[in-house]
Design brief:
This protein is about 40% helix and about 20% strand. By secondary structure, it is an alpha/beta fold. It has a single domain, classed as Rossmann fold (3-Layer(aba) Sandwich).
Length: about 220
């Protein structure tokens, strides 16, 4: 840690992800996108399982997010619908993506939330947009968020940008995120490393486990 103009600044990963001021944000690990466990998705889920276990045993706050939309396109603006259409959505022919009540919105059972772990539904890419996340973090004196889940180049990246704009330290675990767009995944990680910390699950788990041994 160093002091800059009278302000204390964390200067290494261990300081940034110290368990007493860190929350683990699990972004959109839902049946619809994650049920096909191959390649990048399979590796990311394995990493998430490991880091989730470490977070729980060291007292790191865990918050889950689900991408969920109500019926009748009520929260889908024209620009948002345009994005979905560009991605292949066919209004009038396809069901509304991640519709409330659909099994596709369920969090994967292998990382299911435990009692006391918050699940927040969101309507947009960023986990901050239209949710109580910022209030929860500030109320619990959280300074750092550790991001896992998907998609790397969409919801994870959007949440990261929103976090830095709100003055949180942010860490993305590169082996715990996935995207159906491999080129976008790589490009997003490269860009995120410029504005935040990009680390591996093992790095953060080692820091948290070291803290646990001292307790």
């Amino acid at each position: 840690m160093k002091t800059v103009n009278g302000v204390k600044v964390y200067t290494n990963l261990a300081e940034v992800v110290a368990s007493e001021h860190t929350a683990l944000l699990i972004i959109d690990v839902q049946e619809g996108d994650w049920k096909n466990l191959k390649g990048m998705t399979k590796k990311a889920l394995a990493g998430i399982e490991r880091v989730l276990e470490a977070a729980r045993t060291t007292g790191v706050r865990v918050i889950y997010f689900r991408n969920v939309q109500p019926p009748d396109h009520l929260t889908m603006s024209p620009p948002y619908l345009r994005l979905l259409i560009k991605g292949g959505y066919r209004p009038g022919k396809d069901p509304i993506p991640v519709l409330e009540g659909s099994p596709d919105t369920n969090i994967l059972s292998c990382i299911a939330p435990k009692s006391g772990e918050r699940v927040i539904d969101k309507r947009r890419s960023s986990a901050f947009e239209g949710t109580e996340l910022d209030v929860i973090l500030r109320s619990n004196r959280i300074e750092t968020i550790v991001l896992v889940g998907g998609s790397t180049d969409w919801c994870v990246e959007a949440t990261l940008w929103a976090a830095t704009g709100r003055d949180y330290y942010a860490v993305v675990l590169e082996d715990c995120v996935r995207s159906p767009r491999p080129a976008g995944h790589r490009a997003a990680l490269k860009q995120m490393a410029v504005i935040a910390d990009v680390a591996r699950a093992a790095d953060v788990i080692a820091i948290w486990n070291k803290k646990k041994k001292k307790l």
